[in-house]
Amino acid sequence: MNLIECKGISKSFGDNMALTDVSISVPKGQIFGLLGPNGAGKTTLIRVINQITTPDSGEVLLNGVKITSQDVAKIGYLPEERGLYKKMKIGEQALYLAKLKGMSRADAMKELKYWFTKFGIESWWNKKVEELSKGMAQKIQFITTVVHKPTLLILDEPLSGFDPVNVQLIRNEILRMRNEGTTIMLSTHNMESVEELCDNIALINKSKLVVTGATDEIRRNYGKNQMEIFYRSVEQISIPEHNLYRVVSDEERSGHRRVIVELNKGANNNAVIESLLPHLDIVSINELIPRMNDIFIKLVSNSQLNG
User: What number does CATH give the domain 2-220?
Assistant: First the structure.
């Protein structure tokens, strides 16, 4: 079941085409990665979903019904351009933003106390934003985005500006909210975060959708059907040619040998391993699946060449 469906979204600004017939589906209770280089159209799509920008054509459905401005209260949006009032006290500001999302003062105070305690920042309540570092201000912005327990959480580069400890803190909160049923859209250039967090992705480049689907499935689809095998030997062992595979490389790695074999079409992993066992003292075997970073670069480069 999808929480959000974007159907044929197109949007231009003058002569600049920001989105061209983009259709994506965001499943309920999952983390959906929205990827693409700068200027690809990601932020425009987020603004269309969040009812900030009206598309030239196409529609956005929320739970199968066309989204309206009243639905924005169900959305938490953390934009890449952070926007806190520097001269305003943090507690007053957080309370004000929570009430804008329809929370009563009592409920807002209860939830804000929970989050301030959880992040260990109770003493910040009467500070001003201008007194905080970028990372500290980021924490406040994250809290004000999630305090009303949104059905849909849209995060644009939520980990930028954080040190490694706070990156892990925010990652853990994102995963916890996903596990508790929140649907999350994550726009990021950090491919490590995509692999760790995202169940599904969409890649947009030059206003067009390049690929969308389950993260693991996309990684496998762009693999070369290769296996990485470590075996015990000081010298390289000559592996006989076989109709199941071909040897791509064989090199020394940390006291062992590392051989990569590429399976021929229709070859079975177990059959390949059985054929290698008489020749190699095998230590470990891993299926080689490409990283999202490599897939991202390949797809963006290809779409630019073909565009």
Answer: 3.40.50.300
